[in-house]
Amino acid sequence: MSVTAAGSRRSLEDVVRGYRRRAGLTQRQVAERAGMSVASLRDLEQGRVATPRVGTLRKLADALELTAAETEELVQLSQSGKTETADLWVRILGPLAVRAGGVDVDPGPVRQRVLLGLLALTPNKTVGREGLIEAGWGEQPPANVVDLLQTSMSRLRRRLQAPQGEAEPARIITATRGGYQLTVADDQLDLLAFRARLELARKCRDAGDIPGACAAYRDAVELWRGDALADLPSLYVHPSVVALTGEWQTMVVEYAETAARLDRHEQVVPLLRRLTEADPLHESAHARLMVALAGSGQQAAALTVYGELRRRIADELGAEPGREVAEAHQRVLRQEVHHPEIAEPVTVRAHRQLPRDIADFTGRDIELTALRNKLTQSESDHAAAMIIAIEGMAGVGKTRLAVRLAYQLFGEGRFTDEHLYVDLRGHADQPPAEPATVLASFLHLLGVPGDQIPRGLDERAALYRARLREQGVLVLLDNAASAEQVLPLLPDSPRNAVLVTSRRSLALDGAHSLPLDVFSPVDARLLLTQIVGEERVAADAEAAQRVVELCGRLPLAVALIARRIQGRPAWSFADMTRRLLDASDRIDELTAGSRHVRAAFDLSYQALGLSARQMFRLLGLHPGDDFTSASAAAMVGCPEEAARRLLDCLVDEHLAIVVTGERYQLHDLVRAYARDVAERDEEDGGQAAVDRVLNWHLHAAYRAKSVLSPAVGTTFSVSDESPLDLPEFDDEDAAFSWFDAEHASVTGAVALGVEYGLESISWQLTALLRTYFERTSEWDRWVSVAQLGLAAARRVGDRAGEALLLSDLGLAYGQLDELEQSARSAKESLEIRQAIGDRAGEGWSQNNLGIAIARCGDVAAARGHFQAAIELARKLTDTRFEAAVLSNLGQCHVGLGEFNEAVTCLRGAVELRRNVNDIVGIAISLHCLGAALLGLDRYEEAIPLLQESCELCRQQRYRAYEAEALETLGKALREVNREAEAQECWERGLKILAEIRQERAAGTVS
């Protein structure tokens, strides 16, 4: 089938659709192959994508197995409809430079250049407003800085417009939620072009096309004109610039390694010279420079490099160069720098040369003691080798713990015959190590001549085990990919021990598994102190602890931040706290030199399948701290059973944590990384997923609230029809338990809805939370959420929603003794409802205004509002509402000393509430009735009513009200000389209140 286009934009859709049909693939099949969403492909085929990205089209071409000519055709068609921004070329790999419309463009004064540079460092991603302001105006910006930022961005847009452009400026810089974004294609920004060429080089290298890889590396190098943004000193230490420098260093080392395979050493000597001058302790670069110099015929210069590096390391670190440099030195001495093309070698440490232990190793005393004890026990109990599997998320310190344990064992005189180490590359930018290759290396180290090493995997494994049976050997298998990879490498003698580290749950038979968690607060603080120094930490202890918590107590993150602070004496912990509090930049802040937390997470993410990747990144947008498989399924839009399988994958990769049997959690930094990936990789920034999960919470919360408290009207309804799998609630206890587990997620959903323009859902969720927070007496928490919900209702002009939340806020403020605010909110609610003709809502507002006025002391005036509410309830034949107001009117009579009238009202309220089975309402009215009877000295009559009220409150977990009812019951019992029982009631009530206070302090009220 031949597909042609006449150059029009419309024909691109026909071309893509035609190639897909030629391949006989569905949209879903193509999308999965290309690593894109079905919705994105559908939009492309239906012409809803204005300017498809070149990178996306090339992935699509790979998925459809197009020829080079067909791929180029797609790219050309995508460019044919571009605006004047197609001629844009922004360069940051060197001094900032811009061309637009074929001519050089001056971005403007320094501040505008800084802003453009910052946007270009993270293309096609939002840069937070706070970060832009700090970069442009420093730490003490003027009061009108937001206006100044908007003005600067407008000027930048105009300057980036090509001279021949029309009046409308190019929308290359756009305002987004919380900041601004530079939207560019690979051919409009040298950074993106560099990364595309680097990706091509790595693909060629991995496929064995070494000449092609060298050419692509050379093309990538040519884009660099000097240090990134070299003309903007204020950005020199910005995390993104530091990270970009790390990318350049990595690329140079890779290029040198690849060029050496073709003996093209002279190509990389200048680059390696530049790198080693910039980083005098970069051992990988020095090792490759030595090889490159010797390969270019400069053996003396190579040996000089080694000598200078060795002296430098000895002077500054008090150590010797590492294995990589030592091996390069030996190659130079033996003149073995010319070699034929060979497969990437597996890194195996020499005999008794494990990775070095580190001086600033901190904490893990409990784990180390437990593991040593386990190994001691195993020596006497086991007939096979002892196996310890240390598993955990990226950056948690698995390898360092294993190495420290190994050295402790050596210090105790154990396993001293041989030490074998291998990096199995389970999570690396190279393929996992083959067990057969590892065994060949191990056998060589164990003294087996090359011509005696068997060819087959099983034969090698058998010889390996035989060699280890008579020796006390410790084997460290680092960074394992799977149990299948590890099994052939396990010895079978009880004289041997094996330490395995992995980011995956390996489930090795006979192994003791240690799931390694993040540091305790004490250990994390100790690591910070070890690196930064006790004096600086003690000087700002509170901010230092805050930094540790913002790092999620992840050892790698704490260490990287500590090293950044150590190298910057002018920085305070408060400065770093402010940087880390910007969630959009937190991951990029966690860097030091060429080491990044992001790089560690990237490898774990890339190891996932396509569906698991989508699940992971969307969970970064999930509201609250934890989630269930049901809400995760809603997020992704898949059946719950499928969601469970995907969550199992994330748990196995230690990207998700099982909190309880049904609840999962992402570590704070993992969640920040996942959200960052979602905003980058989801075509709509995750909008559709957020819409789904918020609707799931709305429908579920409405169901739970309807069971928990049907008497309290919301004046809005939510359809029970939903494509989502929703929870079922058989009784009030189940509904309360759901709120108990999900209230943090529902609260988070309110804020998330505001962020994503779903304000109508936000205010409704706020209203549905009120009953739960009333039961737990957490009025202060509900008020903070309600204020956000109220603003959301006002933003979308929903007067009914505004009135509902004002009415409920009136109650909440009253409970918090903010009486004037209580009356004001209730009055405003009533006025709105009367204005819009909301009769049912008006009744509730009359009731709540009555409560507010009564609390202010005007009980007589409150009575009028209750009577008006009762009339409305009877007109609407709303029995539950009538009973609630009648109960309040009864309390009003008590306040006026009208006890007989109060008893009449409250008996009526109890009867109505029993008729509709309003359990909580019955408990409240019984308590009020008992209190009224006390006013008439009818103690014996009051006691059973109060006892029933206490029991119902206990059953319904209405704990604060139970304490209040117990106090009243105690008074009644004392009046009839039942002192011991009275004392017991008061003690129970005080215990409940103490528990509530304690749980509030811990944030775990239930």
Automatic annotation (TrEMBL):
Pfam families: BTAD, HTH_31, TPR_12, Trans_reg_C. Residues 80-184 form the OmpR/PhoB-type domain. Keywords: DNA-binding, TPR repeat, Transcription, Transcription regulation. The keyword rRNA processing does not apply. CDD domains: BTAD, HTH_XRE. Residues 16-71 form the HTH cro/C1-type domain. Residues 80-184 bind DNA. GO terms for biological process: phosphorelay signal transduction system; regulation of DNA-templated transcription. TPR repeats lie at residues 883-916. GO terms for molecular function: ADP binding; DNA binding. Belongs to the AfsR/DnrI/RedD regulatory family. PANTHER family: TRANSCRIPTIONAL REGULATOR REDD, TRANSCRIPTIONAL REGULATOR REDD-RELATED. This is DNA-binding SARP family transcriptional activator.
